[in-house]
Structure formats: structure tokens, C-alpha cells
Design a protein that fits this description.
196 residues; Immunoglobulin-like; 2 domains; extended
Length: 196
Amino acid sequence: MKKYWPIIALLAGVLVVAGVYFFVIRKPAVDDNLSQEDQTVAEIPQDQRPSTSLTPSMDGHWLKMKIESIKVAGAFSMDYELLYKISDGRTQGVPGTIKLEGQTSIERNLLLGSESSGKFRYDEGVESGTLTLRFRNSSGKLLGRLSTDWTLSMSGKNYVVKMNNFVKEGESTFTSSSSFTDGKSGTKSSTSVPND
């Protein structure tokens, strides 16, 4: 039995190295496919683009994402991805997928932080980020993608978000100000102003 120990140890070492390569070093193929998909997907026609807004809560810890007039031809589901940088330079994100099922308007309250067992940790120093929407058919094929930058800042006593709302791309900037107190309630107030 002792003569087999070196072979067993060698096989165990090979398995450990293979596991480290497969789970840690090698990038998942899904990420590669997504970036290739994003690069080759056709542009969504202007008349099918939804109007999108982000409205900050009074404390700036939540963003209410509202997407209206969803009419992307053949869309079965929509992926959203809100990315932002925090004060130490790390990038954080809020991803999600929504089955459209005929819905033309969707609202989600997105936390700039994390929640565990009812306790909230808020990310500090959030000033800007990106919002990306991806529309897919019933087979999961990417039909179209929209992405825009947004900024979060103080204006007087209110937080304000500025972003492109996709509908009049390059012509107007959507501005929304604080109008709700937490991630569970409130309504949106907004204006559209020309780009400088």
C-alpha cells in the first residue's frame, strides 16, 4: 500500500491544480459571451426605446428605476444592471431580470448598498455610474441593448440624478430629484432639460 502513496498524492495535486484553474483562473465563458453579444447586437430603433428614469430617495441611498413605454419588438424579458463606484474606488452593482409578460411600465427600488436579515449597509461616496438594459426574446437571445451614464449630486437639500432617458438620445438630459424617503414608497418628480 505504501508504494501507491506517491501516485495518490500526485493525482490529488493534479486535481487541486485543475480545480484552481477551472474555478479561479479561467474566466467563465458566460462573461465572454455577454461581452461578445453586447458588441454585435443591433441598435434598438428610436421609436422602440423605452423612457427610463432614476429618482433618488431623500437620503440618497436608493434609486427608483422607472421604465415606461416598453415596446421592443419580440422582447420577453429585460435584464438591468446598475453599476456605480464607491468612495474607495471599487465598483458595485445592482443586477436583475424582469419577465415582461406584456408589461409596458416597470418600477424597481434599487439599493445603493446591501441588505442582510433586515439590516442595511449603505455605500458611501456614490457620485456616478451606468445603467444598462438588455432585452431578450423567449429563447434568451439578446435583441437589443441600451446603456447610459448617470450622476448623483446634491442640489440644495435634495439629491439629483442626471441621465439620458434613451428616448431623445443626445438631445436632452433627464433630471430627477429626491421625492421619496426609503426604498418602499414615494412618487417621482422630474423634468427634462436641454444638454449644455
